[in-house]
Amino acid sequence: MRWGLLKPSLIPPKPIRDLRDLCRYRKKLTEQASAEKNRIQKVLEDANIKLASVVSSVFGVSGRAMLEALMQGEKSPEETADLAKRKLRSKIPQLVEALEGRVNEHHRFLMRMQMEHLEYLEKAIAQLHERIDEKIKPYQHEVELICTTPGIDTVAAQHIFAEIGGDISVFPSEGHLASWIGICPGNNESAGKRKSGRTTRGNRWLKSLLVQCAHGASRTKGTYLKAFYHRVAARRGKKRAALAVAHKQTAIIYHELSEDKPYQELGENFFDRINQKALEQRLVRRLRSLGYRVDLHPEPVTPQCS
Fold it and tell me: Structural domain tally of the chain?
């Protein structure tokens, strides 16, 4: 340490540290808000109110109006169902059946406390959104670059940028960044035997966020990351596939920030293009095993008029 042989820890400048605290607090409050919604849903189920089976969003405009009517306890199921808005009005008969329950004073008391806590959390999250948007203005360009990655929205991009620290040059390569986050395979090998390949310990905030974004990327249409996810999931399972996609996203983010370039989409058929010959042989074998005679004739390329 006295001779400078130890690398210092990553300590970003104070504006980035402040931004990191805000993003972490916003994530915690968002998790608490989700937990509070689950508690309200549990009380509804205990009262035999099946609102979630009919309404896609129990805490939307229509859902909150019905919850308020249930907490007051002065309206019949028909009057409560009549509070539905827009497209939900076509489901009024199903809503009447879903609202036929046994809501007593105990349920109303719990729901009132939980709704008040939820409203407080939502107000605090909105204040954090405004504060983070204000603090991150000097780094808006970097956030927009990260947003071009499939599966990553503005909120996730802000948190990713704050956790990385603003200066990507402190990481010599994308592998160093992945190792720091903790999404690279472990290397526990002794006497030629591989004992474990579980991921290493790293930045738990960023690791969980990237895995969440990886699940979002697996549902995007026509993207390379979606094809990569399903390619790995078929062999290794969905959890390992999500972690592999998170590793890919880390490499993409590293190159976006280091090269100052947005993400370039490779397409969902990228793996078919690079392994075209192997794909042809595999499909021909399958057709022949079903009793077909297969002869491949490439389609002639028609010249395009300039």
Answer: 2
